[in-house]
């Protein structure tokens, strides 16, 4: 299929600047090889999805990029600096939201800024702006348990945006919210990628979701974990959010990914 | 709703007192006074100041013991919860302490520390501390992994992760441990006064029993229960004040 290119060729011929570069990463847990010699490049200002069946190491890879896990071998470079731990250039959105239940929305959103040493009135002002941006104005003093699942993930998103990192790492961020909210989130995410000049790395297990939101999709396969191919959809997103799911290229890619993954799903 | 809960509590207390009164009037045993007799004995003890004198004596080992148990217990519990090494080092001590038949060990304590305040404080600590340590360490070990990762990925220092995430996350279970520990401490304080030297409230209980003044004996027991309940309620208030969003648990669960 025309839009699906060979891995090596694709990785070497990107014209865009690279924000995050993963080189020959391996990760072992005892005798278990979670990741083996994995290399991947993430272009600046784009959204790259890591897609694959469970056990393919996509979350492990994301946590290594975040600096939460240390690779057994290989390097991760973010903006040409080697990753040795968490840094100001990356922010994480968690699958289970990871909100502090004892803290208000405002406190949760400003947590990252507080840890960076931003002074109180300033950080609350910034947090306030992002709370408004994700559509939670008026809920600043609510506690997480008073919000719906979708609203909780908006808090998680606002917290990640508030620290103004170059790279946003999202670990299946919409898997714990309901289908309708998820669709809205996906549309909002497209806007976000468009409007902010940030690099998004997005882990998902939903093929449709990956194709819908991504500039680039990396298909990961398990045993041993590897990047099997990289797909760069051409231009169906320019046709507007409402047309995407009916576009023939969108449908072809979804079908094609499923064909390649089918044999790996038990 | 708040009002209804209060009315229900009041009703439950009333039902208990009523059952006590009936049981006393039957009578279940000649050594079991009615509720009203006990209350009038309590009034009398309060009026002639005997009760206050007794509590001045009893509260000393109790408060010192509980304060030591709470502070040391929580610190050791955090330590044990955070480090495998301290887990191996300390956990067995507290598990043994909790399982030990304390009443049988009191003669040993008296032999080592005499019959004074020290022995009584130790008895309170042995009763109160293990459950505080074990609850605290258990809660710390069970901090949701994603919350810790959240802290680390947003650049919290090790100290901030402990103070801003692990301790608040563990606080409901820490407070549950404190509640259990404090009630055990009350039992320990009375046990110490019954088994070591009869002073304070323990003295009222022993003396009243020896002269068959059962209403006074039960009045003393009743007063210590009321005090312990009031204390635990106060602790609840402190918890709500400190950790507001905790009442509803984790959003991710």
What does this structure look like?
Chain A is an alpha/beta fold and 266 residues long. Chain A contains ten helices and eleven strands. Chain A has helices at 7-12, 58-66, 105-109, 111-115, 120-133, 149-162, 179-195, 207-213, 241-244, 248-261, and strands spanning 4-5, 18-29, 32-43, 47-51, 73-78, 81-82, 90-93, 167-171, 199-204, 216-221, 226-231. In chain A, helix 5 packs across helix 6 and helix 8 packs across helix 10 (248-261). Chain A starts with a strand and ends in a 5-residue tail after the last helix. Chain B has helices spanning 2-25, 35-47, 50-82, 84-99, 102-113, 117-141, 145-153, 158-195, 200-210, 214-242. The radius of gyration of chain B is 22 Å and the shape is globular. In chain B, 83% of the residues lie in helices and 0% in strands. In chain B, helix 3 (50-82) runs antiparallel to helix 8 (158-195). By secondary structure, chain B is mainly α. Chains A and B meet through strand 7 and helix 4 of A and helix 7 and helix 8 of B.
Structural class of chain A, by secondary structure, is alpha/beta
Bin the helical content of chain A. Answer: 25-40%
Q: Rg of chain B to the nearest angstrom?
A: 22 Å
Any idea what the shape of chain A is?
globular
Distance between the termini of chain A: 26 Å
The number of helical elements of chain B comes to: 10
Backbone CA Rg of chain A: 18 Å
Question: Tags for this entry?
Answer:
A: 266 residues, alpha/beta, seven-stranded mixed sheet, four-stranded antiparallel sheet, disordered N terminus, B: 253 residues, mainly alpha, 10 helices, 83% helix
């Amino acid at each position: 299929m025309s839009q699906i290119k060979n891995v090596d060729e694709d990785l070497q011929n990107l014209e865009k600047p690279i924000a995050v570069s993963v080189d020959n990463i391996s990760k072992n847990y005892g005798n278990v090889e979670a990741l083996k010699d994995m290399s991947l490049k993430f272009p600046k200002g784009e959204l790259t999805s890591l897609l694959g069946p469970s056990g393919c190491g996509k979350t492990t890879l994301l946590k290594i990029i975040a600096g939460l896990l240390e690779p057994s071998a290989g390097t991760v470079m973010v903006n040409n600096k080697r990753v040795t731990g968490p840094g100001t250039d990356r922010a994480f959105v968690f699958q289970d939201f990871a909100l502090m239940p004892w803290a208000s929305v405002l406190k949760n959103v400003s947590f990252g800024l507080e840890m960076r040493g931003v002074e109180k009135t300033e950080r609350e002002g910034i947090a306030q702006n992002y709370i408004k941006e994700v559509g939670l104005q008026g809920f600043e003093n609510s506690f997480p348990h008073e919000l719906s699942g979708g609203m909780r993930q908006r808090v998680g998103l606002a917290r990640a945006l508030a620290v103004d990192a170059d790279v946003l790492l999202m670990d299946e961020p919409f898997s714990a919210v309901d289908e309708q909210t998820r669709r809205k989130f996906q549309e909002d995410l497209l806007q976000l990628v468009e409007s902010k000049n940030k690099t998004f790395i997005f882990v998902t297990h939903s093929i449709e979701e990956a194709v819908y939101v991504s500039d680039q999709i990396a298909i990961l396969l398990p045993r041993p974990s590897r990047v099997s191919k990289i797909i760069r959809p051409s231009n169906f997103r320019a046709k507007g959010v409402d047309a995407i799911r009916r576009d023939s290229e969108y449908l072809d890619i979804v079908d094609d990914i499923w064909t390649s993954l089918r044999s790996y799903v038990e | 709703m708040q009002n209804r809960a209060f009315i229900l509590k009041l009703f439950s207390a009333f039902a208990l007192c009523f059952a006590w009164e009936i049981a006393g009037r039957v009578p279940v045993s000649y050594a079991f006074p009615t509720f009203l007799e006990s209350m009038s004995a309590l009034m009398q003890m309060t009026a002639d100041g005997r009760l206050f004198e007794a509590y001045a004596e009893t509260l000393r080992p109790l408060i010192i013991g509980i304060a030591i148990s709470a502070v040391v217990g929580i610190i050791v519990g955090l330590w044990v919860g955070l480090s495998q090494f301290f887990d191996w080092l300390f956990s067995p001590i507290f598990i043994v302490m909790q399982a030990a038949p304390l009443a049988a060990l009191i003669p040993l304590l008296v032999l080592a520390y005499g019959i004074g305040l020290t022995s009584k404080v130790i008895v309170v600590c042995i009763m109160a501390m293990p459950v505080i340590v074990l609850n605290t360490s258990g809660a710390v070990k069970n901090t949701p992994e994603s919350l810790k990762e959240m802290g680390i990925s947003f650049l919290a220092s090790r100290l901030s992760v402990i103070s801003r995430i692990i301790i608040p996350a563990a606080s409901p279970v820490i407070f549950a441990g404190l509640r259990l520990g404090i009630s055990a401490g009350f039992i320990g304080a009375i046990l110490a006064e019954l088994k070591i030297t009869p002073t304070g409230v323990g003295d009222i209980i022993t003396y009243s029993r020896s002269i068959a003044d059962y209403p006074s004996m039960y009045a003393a027991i009743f007063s210590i229960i009321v005090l312990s309940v009031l204390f635990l309620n106060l602790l609840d208030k402190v918890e709500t004040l400190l950790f507001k969003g905790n009442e509803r648990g984790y959003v991710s669960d």
